[in-house]
Amino acid sequence: MSSLAPFWCLLVFVLAVSSQVTRSWDAAKALASSTVSALTLREKVSLVHGVGNFNGLCVGNTYAISRLNIPSICMNDGPAGLREVDLVSGFPAGINAAATWNKALMQQRGEAIGEEFRTKGAHVFLGPAMDVTRAPEAGRQWESFGVDSYLTGEAACAKHFIGNQQESFRYSESSVIDQRTLQEKYVYPFRRAVDAGVACVMCSYNRVNGTYACENPALIGETGLLKGQLGFKGYVVSDWGATHGSAIGQQMPGDWILRFPTTNFNVQSSSSNSHVNARTAAHTALIRTIGGASAVLLKNLNNALPLVSSENIAVVGLDAGPNAGCTLNACDAGTLSVGWGSGTNSLAYLVPPVTAIQAQVNATIAAGHATILTTSISNDLAAAMTAADGADVALIVVIHSVGPVILEAWIDNPNVTAVINAGLPGEQSGSSIVDVLWGIVNPSGRLPYSIAKSASDYPAHTLSFDVNLFPDITYSEGLFTDYMYFDAQNVTPRYEFGYGLSYSFSTIYSNLVITSSSSTSHTVTLVVQNAGTRAGTEIVQLYIGFPPAAGEPPKLLRGFEAVDLAPGVQSIVTFPLVEKDISVWSSDVGNLQVYPGTFAVYVGSSSRDIRLTGGFTV
């Protein structure tokens, strides 16, 4: 595992709060202990309550205690950047960051968001989300990083803890999760965030095994999962309105009061200035880069892409057009560049696809070869396929969506020559898709989920209706979701997890070497070479298979690297495997434990395009 990407978890928070760490954690805790001892009872009570809900720059604040130099802390949402604030950038969604499979871009995105928080003077970044996607209909999956625990752990911060996998009934449902599934699948990203030094964890609205997450001592108590087992040193904040009869602040006020100022004293707070312009040219360029790198080329029949400048382009579909504004729950009046709700972003600027395409070419249809570009997969697509039938026309489909979309009704239509899954690319939506369409960027995005042939192929679904207002949602699929389930049940998806095409770019994998320095430390090394005619980026993916008796899915992602390769060039890729990568939950010891036996190693370009295999024994 790279030491670079996990640190992103800490960077997002620290950069949002401060330009530098001013004290060690132990020194900050000692100062906090001294400060807390001087608090009156009224002051202690005031610290565990929020104030100023949606007040200007902040979606919430804490009370200030000026006599002890405890400032009011300003919190703002923003898995895609600051929300309800002007003069900020509209970043690509978390699902797009995951689709890059590029740790450097993930980290740069986190740094840039943190810089804008710091510039504005918002102290706490409430996000991004690290809820591993369980079901394809999950309403907030776009904020997070896909279906895989490892991929999510490489890219995320610390909300919502835990069992928050759907929006329907999110205030009342009980996520019924067995300990093994909870620990191995849904806690895994939080474990990596805690290891990286994350300062704040937000608990979720839902119940977990019958008890609300924000008042569940087994989850957030001093000896519970988060603080006891994972060793989390920071503080827990509830989601807005997620506290109930015996909430965290009332149940454990002494613990919270010490943890909160410790975190504050650990960093240097910045002052608030909501009117300063936080946008920079570097952030704009980064957003465009991530948008292009996250675009997944699903189909490219007869090399329909990249386009050439002499082609005539007809652009159809509402999604290609401008967006008059993106309010809290109204982002569909034009191109879909960001999701809705509390995870949305205040777009100060937006380049819709049609504007960028018009700037690239004269967007009219003339006699001879032409291209129809559609950004809608409903009536507009049907009309475009009809128009293309029998004509010298290439039909290219660009999909902006929050998650997987079933494509079977039209994906095999010969008139559909190319398909790009562009996700939610942020404010540079049009510019980034132009880069991919015209080959300015060689697409390297990979799916952070599988696209099935039928919705019924997925093993888990959200509960959208129930006569019981406080339903139980049983995670009966356990560890087996998405590609893990498809592999175990031999279900063939349309496009598998980790899939994506490039232009005139093919790779050769060779020289797999596996070395072991101990039973818990292994290294996988290989060589990858560009055998194509264009430069591009190969996403090398490492999966491992546990011994059959372990009861794990057939293969699990345990490493990935984005490797830039010029034609003919080769590169050595190295993946370290450490103890937690080969561990399973043991109910006997109440923790993760290395499972003995022979492990399989799979290296390839997707979860099903495996190029090299090997193994090691523990």
UniProtKB/TrEMBL annotation:
Coiled coil stretches, renumbered: none
Top-rank taxon, per record: Eukaryota
This protein's pathway: Glycan metabolism; cellulose degradation
GO CC annotation, single: extracellular region
Keywords, comma-separated and alphabetical: Carbohydrate metabolism, Cellulose degradation, Glycosidase, Hydrolase, Polysaccharide degradation, Signal
Occurrences of domain Fibronectin type III-like (ranges): 538-607
Reaction it catalyzes: Hydrolysis of terminal, non-reducing beta-D-glucosyl residues with release of beta-D-glucose
One Gene Ontology molecular-function label: beta-glucosidase activity
Enzyme superclass (EC): hydrolase
InterPro entries: Cellulose_deg_GH3, Fn3-like, GH, Glyco_hydro_3_C, Glyco_hydro_3_C_sf, Glyco_hydro_3_N, Glyco_hydro_3_N_sf, Ig-like_fold
Keyword Nucleotide-binding in annotation: no
EC nos: 3.2.1.21
GO terms (BP aspect): glucan catabolic process
Region forming the signal peptide: 1-19
Keyword Zinc: no
Family label: Belongs to the glycosyl hydrolase 3 family.
Stated name of the protein: beta-glucosidase
Lineage of source species: Eukaryota, Fungi, Dikarya, Basidiomycota, Agaricomycotina
